UniProtKB/TrEMBL annotation:
The keyword Metal-binding does not apply. This is ATP-binding protein. Pfam families: DUF87. Keywords: ATP-binding, Nucleotide-binding. Residues 169-315 form the Helicase HerA central domain. It comes from the Bacteria. GO terms for molecular function: ATP binding. It comes from Paracoccus rhizosphaerae.
Length: 509
């Protein structure tokens, strides 16, 4: 091969003008500040395709140049890029001119493919990254959190099948037989329990959670929007959830959550940019922020700066960097800055524990109506995002001879209608991806209608769907539970339960 690393490092690489404009678009979409970042993504994406790359016509107008040592790095990194491109070309003798043409073609094809995947992901950055990870056949995260102690990293807390009675009674209305649901054998371990106020949905949820705890010491993280979950004992005075799980009750901001919630798995530029993008997506869900394109760029830049320089990074650090960014751009402070100021007024999180340490213990997070809505939303989303990253940094849990998958953590959201419809990306990822990692999610809400605002059809990803008496629209109930499921005619303590591809009418309590 008549080419040297020195030549490659000093060469000017370009793609065509239209593709270069798309490269700039991706900088804005992904909150990247350097042109070479989307270019690297695009070239990588093209290299995953086995078909030969088509070289563009010579008459195409070219875009801006990027030096080889900027586009590919130096030393080992440059060597690896060069080897991959030459190997994919299948040409033993490539000179610098030929390499420049191949890189421009891969850059162009990769951007076109990324643009397609961006559209398929609904322009949602979390789903977009998930699609790229799936294409690359990589783990869902690039590393592991520091271990909490010897032998604790990635620990699972169950062996064998976890099979629970559906409710305090759990009896088929017709046959009078006991009705059990296998949480971790075969189907999805997630559950959605719905019903109007006073219908008994929380009674059933608590009974299931106690049943799980009796069989395995799986930790629980529960979000309590009413404020009474920790002491909830059900209708028969059973052990409370707080006692059963030995859970610590926390009520931010009165008591900050002792988690390094913005901890990074990887501290390289890609890891920082990815984490900053995830924070921006969480922040953009707040009602007070109302981010436009310019604000989204500023928030990403502020988060990336704070995460790169502050260890541990806290919300107040992002607030300070956001003010700096606005000053540098001579922009007037707006809703984004005001919302960050409000979120930083009281400490919602205190970085005392790593995610590995935190998610191996049980917590009940109280978020009653007295807590500001934006504060409640950011607490839920950042915690779910940290849980999602933590689980996906671990290897898959073991599957036993009976097909049961070990459990690592339970996540329960009571009164979930308070956040459903805000399209939290972290909740969507957990429901779609956490099963193989030992995660199980339980959503307790008022009606099947609550799920209609979500981009993902959560109810189709639930191993168990139970519905008590509610005024849900007939179409929603039929879609979820099948024909004949009349939720308005249920008696006290009764519900319809769909699991294992069947629907049963049961006496739950």
């Amino acid at each position: 091969m008549s080419i040297s690393l020195v030549e490659v490092a000093g060469a000017n690489f370009r793609t065509d003008y239209d593709s270069d404009r798309l490269n700039t678009d991706f900088m804005g979409r992904l909150g990247m500040r350097k042109r070479y970042l989307p270019a690297r993504m695009a070239i990588s994406r093209s290299l995953t395709m086995s078909a030969p790359v088509d070289l563009p016509a010579d008459e195409l107008e070219l875009g801006k140049a990027i030096k080889g040592d900027t586009l590919f790095g130096t030393g080992t990194a440059l060597s690896v890029w060069l080897a991959l491109i030459v190997e994919r070309a299948g040409e033993p003798d490539i000179d610098t001119k030929r390499l420049i043409a191949l890189v421009g073609a891969h850059w162009r094809r990769g951007l076109m493919k990324l643009d397609e995947e961006w559209a398929h992901a609904g322009q949602d950055i979390a789903q977009f990254v998930g699609r790229l990870v799936d294409v690359a056949e990589l783990p869902k995260a690039g590393g592991r959190w520091p271990a909490a102690g010897k032998g604790t990293e990635g620990a699972s807390f169950s062996t064998g099948e976890v099979k629970v009675l559906l409710g305090e009674i759990g009896e088929d209305v017709t046959t009078k037989e006991k009705v059990y649901w296998s949480l971790n054998r075969g189907g999805a371990p997630h559950a959605a329990i719905m019903g109007g106020s006073g219908s008994g949905k929380t009674v059933m949820a608590a009974a299931i959670l106690r049943g799980i705890r009796e069989q395995a010491p799986v930790p629980l993280i529960a979000f309590d929007f009413k404020g009474d979950l920790a002491g909830f004992t059900g209708t028969k005075g059973q052990q409370s959830l707080g006692e059963a799980y030995k859970a610590q009750v926390i009520e931010p901001p009165r008591m900050p959550i002792p988690l390094d919630v913005l901890a990074l798995i990887e501290r390289d530029q890609f890891g920082i940019d990815q984490a900053a993008s995830r924070f921006r997506e969480s922040f953009s869900r707040l009602k007070g922020s109302k981010l436009g394109d310019r604000q989204r760029t500023y928030v990403h830049e502020a988060a990336a700066r704070a995460m790169a320089t502050e260890v541990p990074c806290e919300l107040k650090h992002i607030r300070d960097r956001l003010i700096e960014v606005y000053e540098e751009h001579e922009a007037r402070e707006d809703g984004a800055v005001a919302t960050m100021e409000e979120l930083s007024r009281f400490p919602l999180f205190e970085p005392q524990m790593s995610p590995t340490e935190f998610f191996q213990r049980s917590w009940i997070i109280k978020l009653p109506p007295t807590v500001a809505e934006d504060s409640r939303t950011i607490v839920v989303n950042l915690l779910l995002d940290a849980l999602d990253q933590h689980l996906n940094s671990l290897v898959n849990t073991d599957t036993g001879p009976d097909g049961s998958r070990a459990l690592r953590v339970l996540c329960m959201i009571d009164e979930a209608h308070q956040i459903l419809g805000t399209k939290l990306p972290s909740l969507s990822r957990l429901i779609r991806m956490s099963r193989s990692k030992g995660g199980a999610v339980m959503l307790v809400s008022q009606s099947p209608d609550d799920f209609s605002g979500e981009e993902d059809d959560f109810l189709d990803n639930m191993g168990l769907v139970a519905a008590f008496a509610t005024n849900a629209k007939p179409g929603a109930a039929t879609r979820v539970l099948g024909k004949g499921a009349n939720l308005t005619g249920l008696q006290k303590g009764q519900c319809y339960a769909r699991f294992d591809q069947t629907t049963k009418k049961i006496n739950a309590w």
